[in-house]
Structure to design on (193 residues):
């Protein structure tokens, strides 16, 4: 893998270390998740060099459709382009992570960064398939769906189409004497039998 010239697509043969493994490596209460902002298109480079220092990383990946040589192919991209998660103890590893190749800064940028709750990383991991990649759910036009969470929870609608490679879908919702079209992330909806 060429670490000096990573592209927007990710190497599918080198999946990221599972986030659950980070807790197994060291169950110390001082290990917390932090968001690392990487230099442009250097997520893999930063991940590689951070892991070389013995720090656990998590780079969520999603599958998107792309076109190469007039063919549609499936590619993997970071779910959050330019960012990755690291689990470490700030007392022992903050300086090592902050000055790693490919890292721009630890967020929020301050002398003592604010950790991300474990539940945030767990919620992202729930979206992954067995191979660690987040894929769109197999919705088809006119499928009956229900909004599973959020402020419009339990509202029924009809799937219309995918709107972007970020996983947004357009739904047609039926209200009393009114039809509304809304866009939501695919993780907010589920198919109704």
């Amino acid at each position: 893998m060429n670490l000096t010239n990573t592209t927007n697509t990710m190497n599918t043969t080198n999946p990221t270390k599972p986030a659950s493994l980070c807790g197994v490596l060291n169950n110390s209460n001082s290990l917390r998740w932090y968001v690392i902002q990487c230099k442009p298109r250097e997520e893999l480079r930063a991940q590689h060099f951070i892991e070389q220092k013995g720090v656990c990383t998590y780079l969520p990946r999603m599958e998107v459709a792309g076109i190469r040589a007039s063919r549609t192919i499936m590619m993997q991209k970071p779910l959050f382009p330019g960012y990755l998660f690291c689990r470490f103890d700030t007392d022992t590893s903050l300086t090592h992570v902050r000055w790693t190749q490919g890292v721009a800064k630890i967020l929020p940028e301050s002398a003592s960064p604010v950790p991300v709750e474990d539940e945030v990383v767990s919620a992202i991991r729930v979206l992954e398939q067995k191979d660690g990649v987040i894929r769109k759910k197999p919705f088809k036009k006119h499928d009956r769906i229900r909004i599973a969470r959020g402020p419009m929870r339990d509202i029924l609608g009809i799937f219309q189409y995918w709107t972007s490679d970020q996983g947004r879908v357009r739904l047609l919702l039926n209200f009393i004497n009114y039809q509304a079209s809304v866009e939501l992330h695919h993780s907010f909806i589920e198919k109704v039998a």
